# Entry
Amino acid sequence: MKEKIERVQQVLKEHKINSWIVFCHHSYDIHSKYLLEKNITSATFIMIKQENKPIVITSRMESMMIDNDVYDVIAYKTRSELIELLKNSLSGLENGKKIAINYVPKDNLFDNFSMDILPAGTFEFLTSLNNNINWVSAKDIIRDVRSVKTKKEIENHRIAAKLAEELMEEVVEQKIKPGMTEKEIKALIEYECNKRGGIAFEAIVASGENSAIPHHHASKTKIKENQVLLIDYGVSYNWSNSDITRTYWIGKNPPEEVLRVYEAVDAAKEAAYKHIKAGVFASEVENAVRETMKEFGYDPEKYFIHSTGHPLGIETHDVGVGIYKASETVADKRLIENSVVTVEPGLYFEGKFGVRLEDDCVVTKDGSIRLSNTPKKIITI
# Structure
C-alpha cells in the first residue's frame, strides 16, 4: 500500500496538484477500495498530499480497519462530527491550492465517463467548504495512477492469473459433462474463484451457438456433446483481477471447421504478442491481429466483433490503454509500460459457434510478460 501512495504522490507532483481527495460512502467510489484496500461502507474522506502521511476520516466503527502505518486516521461518531472534521481539514488549506476531486468537467464527460464519480450534492458540499481552493478534476490523476501498476499489483495480477488457470485445469475441467447447464458450470467456477480470493466478474459460460455471443449470460441451456463451450472468468486476488477465456470442444473429435478457427485465433493472439511493447501504438497490435485473421481466410470486419484487449486492474475493464482499432473519433494511444492488459482475439459465427482465447500480460519496455497461457490446441471434454 505504501508503494501505491508513493506512486500517487509522484503523480501529484508531476501534475503540480497539491492534494487528491476521495470522498464516498457505501464504497460507490472504487478509489476508496483502491487506496485503503478495504471495503469501507461509512462516509469516508481520504486526502493524499504531495508529501507526508495521507489523512483518512472515517467512522469509529470502521477506523480500526485502516492501516495506521500508512494513514493518519481520524474517527467520527456522528454526522455533525464528520461535517466539522471536513470543514477543519479543508478550511486549513492555503488559498489557491490545487485540489483534485473525482468529477469530470462537462466538456470531457464522455471521454472520461467512468471517472465522473461524485454525486452532484457531494460535489457542491465539498467545494462549498472552501471557496478559495482551486478545485480541479482528478481525471488525469486517476488515469496516470491506475494505468501503471506497482510491483505489488503486478505480483497480485500474476497470482490471480495462476489461480484462475489452476482452478480450471485441476477442478472445473474435470467436472464438466454433458447434461450440466451453463448456470451450473458458472456456479462451480465462481465457487472455486471465491475459494481462492474472489470473483473478478460474473463468469461467461456459453455453449453451442451461444458461444457466438461474446457477452452471453449463462442460462439453463444444457451442455451437449459435439459442440463448442466458451468460458470467460477471472479471480480477484488482493484487489487485482485476472480475465481469462478458454474454448473447449464437448466430445471426442472436433470438426475441421472448429479446429481451423481455433488455430486462427491462437495465431492472432501470438501475432499480438509479437507487437506488444511499451510505446507501441495500440492500433499496430490490433492491425497485426486482424491481418492474421485475414491470412486464415476470415474477415475480421465480419467475424471479429470487439477489440483485442483492455486494461486490467482493480476493475476488470480498468483505466489505461488497451488494444483497439483507432478511428477518426477514437484516438490512437501508445501502450504503457507496467500496465496490465488482456489479449483476447475471437471469431464468431452467428447461429453456429464462436472461439475466443484470452490471456493477461504485463506491458514492458522490451515486450510483454505473459501471466496466463491458454492452450494452443483445443481441449476436448
In short: The chain has a mean pLDDT of 96. DSSP finds eleven helices and 17 strands in the chain. The longest helix spans residues 151-175.
